[in-house]
Amino acid sequence: MAILVRTACWAPRPLLPVLQTWDLDPRRWVRALRRSPVKVFPSGQVVDRKPGQGKQPRKAAAEASPHAQPLKQPSPAPQSQTPSTWEQSGLRYDKALPGDKRLSSVMTIVKSRPFREKQGKILLEGRRLIADALKAGAVPKVFFFSRVEYLKELPVDKLKGVSLIKVKFEDIKEWSDLVTPQGIMGIFAKPDHVKMTFPETQLRHSLPLLLICDNLRDPGNLGTILRSAAGAGCSKVLLLKGCVDAWEPKVLRAGMGAHFQVPIINNLDWETVPNYLPNDTRVYVADNCGLYAQAQISSKAIDHGWVCDRQLSKFHKYEEEEEEDLETGASEGWLPELEVQSYDLDWTEAPAAVVIGGETHGVSLESLQLAESTGGKRLLIPVVPGVDSLNSAMAASILLFEGRRQLRLRVEHLSRDRRDR
């Protein structure tokens, strides 16, 4: 009976669970509403958003929108060239350790003329001179430098295959010929004027005017003359045997880059000079001294002392040799008689070559013979009484720029005649 009573009192439970009183706490529901949604990645990984990220700025929301156009990223600023960039370009440099003798061994021999002529290598010092050489097509072999920044100023493509050795500045200063060393030295192959690339402006302003250097022994004078030749627009410079080497460091320093602006042909014999002269070239000798020059100029010039007698002994020696040759039947010592004319008179009607002699030995007999065979003359630069002669570099500059002035006037006259026609 008791069992029947219990069965009769049983009632079915509801399908939905009955909420307990603790589930109706409003604070928990408020917290549930404030909870940030979670982000589900395609892989199934769930990441809760951090507090404070519920709101996105407008710019961020626009970027997150699938319809928003991507913003252009600013291009990164170009970075300065670093050794890592050099490594990508295949460039490496070696750092000289204490006791490294490579710099001293090279400097000991490269400054001697026999080594330059035998090995065909020269020394260039300074960033500007090295840059001019590279621009002209000179081939570098070794660079010694104290700071990597000095190499960064040079074109990278010109440095491939070159030995780059970083040394202390004190070592460069010890071997430098400059008062203020620039921290970089370069060993180059001796340039060939045929293979070099001279500046386009220099070639465009080149004139039918050549310079022949005879017995120039002073490095400073030769460097200055080369600089004047480049400035005047000479088409070529010929150096005879007996001149100082054009690639000597002192000549390079005085030339200020003129070696890479005008073709220079070095160490020539007089027999080969005509091969380098254009057709119909007339050779003029810059020589105020000499027995025959004194005899041919006007008496007015003699009265004003425009002729020096410093080299009369040399020409007297030529006369004595001539008399001896006449007695023996030989005639190699004859002295050509060249007409003397003032330097400011017209002498550029044909391609002209000017011979400049050294201050100690003057011009050679071969130069006078060449001038006579081409119909040339002596060019006289008058000086006041008491002045022995002009410096070779000064005389060369006066004559070259006078020749440039005459050629310019000639071109202007031709242009004017064409317009009148």
Automatic annotation (TrEMBL):
Pfam families: MRM3-like_sub_bind (PF22435), SpoU_methylase (PF00588). One of its GO terms (biological process) is rRNA processing. InterPro entries: Alpha/beta_knot_MTases, MRM3-like_sub_bind, Ribosomal_eL30-like_sf, rRNA_Methyltransferase, SpoU_MeTrfase, SpoU_subst-bd, tRNA_m1G_MTases_N. Transmembrane segments: none annotated. Residues 43-90 are annotated as: Disordered. Coiled coil: none annotated. GO terms for cellular component: cytoplasm. SMART domains: SpoU_sub_bind (SM00967). GO terms for molecular function: RNA binding; RNA methyltransferase activity. It comes from the Eukaryota. The keyword Transferase applies. Keywords: Methyltransferase, rRNA processing, Transferase. Residues 123-194 form the RNA 2-O ribose methyltransferase substrate binding domain. The keyword rRNA processing applies. Belongs to the class IV-like SAM-binding methyltransferase superfamily. RNA methyltransferase TrmH family. This is Mitochondrial rRNA methyltransferase 3. It comes from Molossus molossus (Pallas' mastiff bat).
